[in-house]
């Protein structure tokens, strides 16, 4: 089941049967299926097996859940600083033989937020409130030391808004909001997600579509040593923004600090999973205000950012360095 993005945390009455509020985890979504013989399979949203990448989670599911169980959740990794470490999850996909070593040195947790089946009984038609009770009972005997974690849930919108403000410090993107009376409908967007966003500034170093007709922006920030590095990419620009920016952008020559083609992962996506990004380099002298969420790794915003406005009053060296948002 998926979620639709909204801009504000809704009141309790906005959901049929009342709203339930949960953290929006920055990890890998996974279904855990325990067959009738106790065999465990972790499936990604794209129905790819995650067993080889996360053997410690497979073992924990085997220990915690009885045969005939299907649950939904998120595989996460907490770093030593207490923040979610998405880069640690990325390493599992490229580590190959090192995966089992990383399972010991960088163990992950599986945060479970829904139950679809137990003992061969399909719970998807039941309301979330009933499924939650079943899930709490299912995990009641799991020790605190287990990598299996019950997702916390709130019913009060005021408390949820406090969560919304403080959880980004732990690398949690925001909240997922669900109707207490809602059924589990796979493939449907029946939940809501609210991401915590912050406005900040970045330098336009390139565009897709061309300087005269920009479609998206490739954004940079200067390191403390003065080098300009790629830190993110905007979503598609609205027509008015395209017209405004076209008059402010100047195509750059070969003295531009970035390569003519950006390597995979430099402008969004996971390194090694996407093709290089073709773009047009522009003179990096224009600052824009953008809206970003909390998901950042390797010195880049992982999700596309939202263009807000130009900041012709700011010099590129006046904006924050790296991803500091102050």
Automatic annotation (TrEMBL):
<feature type="domain" description="ATP-dependent DNA ligase family profile">
    <location>
        <begin position="110"/>
        <end position="235"/>
    </location>
</feature>
<dbReference type="InterPro" id="IPR012340">
    <property type="entry name" value="NA-bd_OB-fold"/>
</dbReference>
<keyword id="KW-0436">Ligase</keyword>
<dbReference type="Pfam" id="PF01068">
    <property type="entry name" value="DNA_ligase_A_M"/>
</dbReference>
<protein>
    <submittedName>
        <fullName>ATP-dependent DNA ligase</fullName>
    </submittedName>
</protein>
<dbReference type="GO" id="GO:0006310">
    <property type="term" value="P:DNA recombination"/>
</dbReference>
<dbReference type="GO" id="GO:0003910">
    <property type="term" value="F:DNA ligase (ATP) activity"/>
</dbReference>
<dbReference type="GO" id="GO:0006281">
    <property type="term" value="P:DNA repair"/>
</dbReference>
<dbReference type="InterPro" id="IPR012310">
    <property type="entry name" value="DNA_ligase_ATP-dep_cent"/>
</dbReference>
<comment type="similarity">
    <text>Belongs to the ATP-dependent DNA ligase family.</text>
</comment>
<dbReference type="InterPro" id="IPR016059">
    <property type="entry name" value="DNA_ligase_ATP-dep_CS"/>
</dbReference>
<dbReference type="InterPro" id="IPR044119">
    <property type="entry name" value="Adenylation_LigC-like"/>
</dbReference>
<dbReference type="GO" id="GO:0005524">
    <property type="term" value="F:ATP binding"/>
</dbReference>
<dbReference type="InterPro" id="IPR050191">
    <property type="entry name" value="ATP-dep_DNA_ligase"/>
</dbReference>
<dbReference type="InterPro" id="IPR044117">
    <property type="entry name" value="OBF_LigC-like"/>
</dbReference>
